[in-house]
Every structure is written in structure tokens, then in C-alpha cells.
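Milestone 3.1: sequence recovery, worked example.
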């Protein structure tokens, strides 16, 4: 499962940014959203936060329900890590280097291109 998630991310990173690809440093600098104003959270921080939140919710469910709801933690974590895998394809950089929604992202938003990647 880990290798499959890594392969999907590798494809998103190398083909994103309007086909130019992203460096790790560039991705670490990207804000987690372009739609909510000046929020001080980076894309990678958002990914990690979502994964940690999903794990915490699973732990609460496990402790709270006596009927033992089965949770496939590997699937849960993979899903959390892949939830925004389409953003590297949605985003591009303009001529000044500012991260913007690219032409591809205007046509197909990240939830849908992420599904196609996965």
C-alpha cells in the first residue's frame, strides 16, 4: 500500500505545475489552499494534519464504541494522504513564480484529477 501511495504522489509531483513538475522545496512552500485568503498553513502541513486527524478519529471510535467497528488503518491513512494528491496538477506558477490555479486546474479540480491519478 505504501509503495502505491508513493507512486501516485511521484506522478503528481513530476507531472504537476503545468507539466513542469514540482521540486520538494517548491511543494513545501505552497499554501494549502488558494481559496481562503492568507492562511498560514502550507500544503505539506495540511496533508500531515489531515492524516493525523484521521488517525485520531479512528482511535476515538475504537475507544468509544463497544461494538468494535472495524477500521482498516492502512486504508484510512492511504486515503488521508491521497485526499489532495491532485493539487500538484491543479496548481501552476505564473510568470512571476506565484502559485496559481493552472489551466488544467481550471478545467479539472484536484478532487477529480486526484481520483484519476489514484
Amino acid at each position: 500500500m505504501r509503495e502505491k501511495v508513493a507512486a501516485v504522489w511521484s506522478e503528481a509531483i513530476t507531472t504537476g505545475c503545468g507539466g513542469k513538475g514540482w521540486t520538494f522545496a517548491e511543494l513545501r512552500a505552497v499554501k494549502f489552499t488558494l481559496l481562503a485568503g492568507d492562511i498560514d498553513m502550507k500544503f505539506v502541513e495540511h496533508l500531515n494534519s489531515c492524516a493525523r486527524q484521521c488517525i485520531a478519529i479512528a482511535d476515538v471510535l475504537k475507544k468509544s464504541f463497544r461494538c468494535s467497528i472495524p477500521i482498516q488503518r492502512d486504508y484510512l491513512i492511504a486515503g488521508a494522504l491521497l485526499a489532495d494528491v491532485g493539487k500538484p496538477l491543479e496548481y501552476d506558477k505564473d510568470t512571476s513564480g506565484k502559485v496559481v490555479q493552472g489551466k488544467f486546474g481550471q478545467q479539472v479540480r484536484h478532487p477529480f484529477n486526484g481520483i484519476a491519478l489514484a
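The beta strands are 91-93, 99-101. The chain has seven helices and two strands.
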